[in-house]
Every structure is written in structure tokens, then in C-alpha cells.
Amino acid sequence: RITVKELAEILLTPEDIARRVQELGAEITRDYQGKELVVIGILKGALPFMADLIRQIKVPLRYDLMAVSSYGDSTRTSGAVQILKDIEMGLEDQHVLVVEDIIDTGLTLKYLVSNLQARCPASLKICTLLDKPSRREVDIHPDYNGFVIPDHFVVGYGLDYAERFRELPMIGILKPEVYTGK
Ligand code: PRP
Ligand code: MN
Ligand code: MG
């Protein structure tokens, strides 16, 4: 078992994550029976989750990636959402599932949902691995959620602090001294 010195606590082990991703995949498979899916992963944070989730969804799917950023190298959101890379496929009459690693203030997804809705999909749902409802600033609710978590700065499994820690197989709480520099 690996230890990471910057983590104060491990919130979710690789096994916790794998089990829940399997459950989410099974739930999504049931809900989309007889349909085809378009899965849209939101870079960069959603990459590990999306990669694992698509292999647990047993209906035919296509996936694409979108890059949106609002956080920069800070632990707090600026609220300004920017599309850095758009998807390449059209969404008209498609069943679309947006995959995120975390919903925090909700600003990223609020923007994305209205942007994608304008492309006239047959349906549009949200799947997030983590939900931090205590931080919500806009009204947005995931259709599929892995874990509700308390208000701590978490990293790992795609989640970063200043681009670091995304590669960790677990999700942990970052020691405050890492971002306060003390
Ligand atoms: C993070 C995270 C979500 C978003 C959630 O992305 O991956 O996409 O913030 O925050 P919100 O609900 O307050 O909008 P970030 O902008 O840090 O980009 P990244 O995925 O490249 O790390
Ligand atoms: Mn993100
Ligand atoms: Mg980030």
C-alpha cells in the first residue's frame, strides 16, 4: 500500500473507487438498455474516472472529450468558465452523458449543461464521481453520483492541486501546508 506524504487522510481507496465505479456502470447500463450513448468527459480531471467508467458500461457508446477550465492553479474557483477544447461530434438526437470528477460550486457543469443542451441532444444526464454539495453556488444536481464528500480539498484519481496529484490511484485530503506553503 503506497503512502503519499502530502495527504492528511485517505478518503477513498482504489478499491472503494473501483467498487463504486462498477455500481455506477451497472446503473447506467440498466438505464440506457437498448440505446446508444455519447459519453463526454471533461478534461482534465475526469480522465481516470471516465476511462474506468466506460469499461463498466455495457451498452454501445462513443466518447469524446471537452476541456473546460475555471480554477487555474488556485484552490478556489474564479467562476469564469472557458472552453479550451470542444468535442468533435454532433449531439443532435443523441443520448449524452457528461462525466465529471467533482461538482463543487456547480459553475462548470451549469455552464456546460446549457451549452450542450443548445446542441439538441435526445437526452442529457450528468455523472460525477464526487459531489460536494456544501459548496454549491448554483442549482445543479447529478443524475449519477459516486460519493458525497465533505468540504475538504481533495486530490488524486484525476483531481489536482496546481496540476499535481492527478495520477494517484486513491482520493485523499491534501495537507493544508501544501497549499498554504507553511
Ligand atoms: C475542477 C473539477 C471540475 C470543476 C468543479 O476542474 O475537475 O471540473 O473544477 O468545480 P465547480 O463545480 O466549482 O465548477 P478544474 O477547473 O480545476 O480543471 P481540471 O479538471 O483541468 O483540473
Ligand atoms: Mn475539471
Ligand atoms: Mg483542477
UniProtKB/TrEMBL annotation:
It catalyses: GMP + diphosphate = guanine + 5-phospho-alpha-D-ribose 1-diphosphate; IMP + diphosphate = hypoxanthine + 5-phospho-alpha-D-ribose 1-diphosphate. GO terms for cellular component: cytosol. GO terms for molecular function: guanine phosphoribosyltransferase activity; hypoxanthine phosphoribosyltransferase activity; magnesium ion binding; nucleotide binding. Its main location: cytoplasm. Pathway: Purine metabolism; GMP biosynthesis via salvage pathway; GMP from guanine: step 1/1; Purine metabolism; IMP biosynthesis via salvage pathway; IMP from hypoxanthine: step 1/1. Its EC number is 2.4.2.8. Its cofactor is Mg(2+). Keywords: Cytoplasm, Glycosyltransferase, Magnesium, Metal-binding, Nucleotide-binding, Purine salvage, Transferase. GO terms for biological process: GMP salvage; guanine salvage; hypoxanthine metabolic process; IMP salvage; purine ribonucleoside salvage. InterPro entries: HGPRT (IPR050408), Hxn_phspho_trans (IPR005904), PRTase-like (IPR029057), PRTase_dom (IPR000836). Residues 15-161 form the Phosphoribosyltransferase domain. It is an enzyme of class 2 (transferase). It is found in: Cytoplasm. It holds the Pfam family Pribosyltran. Belongs to the purine/pyrimidine phosphoribosyltransferase family. Purine salvage pathway enzyme that catalyzes the transfer of the ribosyl-5-phosphate group from 5-phospho-alpha-D-ribose 1-diphosphate (PRPP) to the N9 position of the 6-oxopurines hypoxanthine and guanine to form the corresponding ribonucleotides IMP (inosine 5'-monophosphate) and GMP (guanosine 5'-monophosphate), with the release of PPi. This is Hypoxanthine phosphoribosyltransferase. It comes from Capillibacterium thermochitinicola. The gene is hpt.
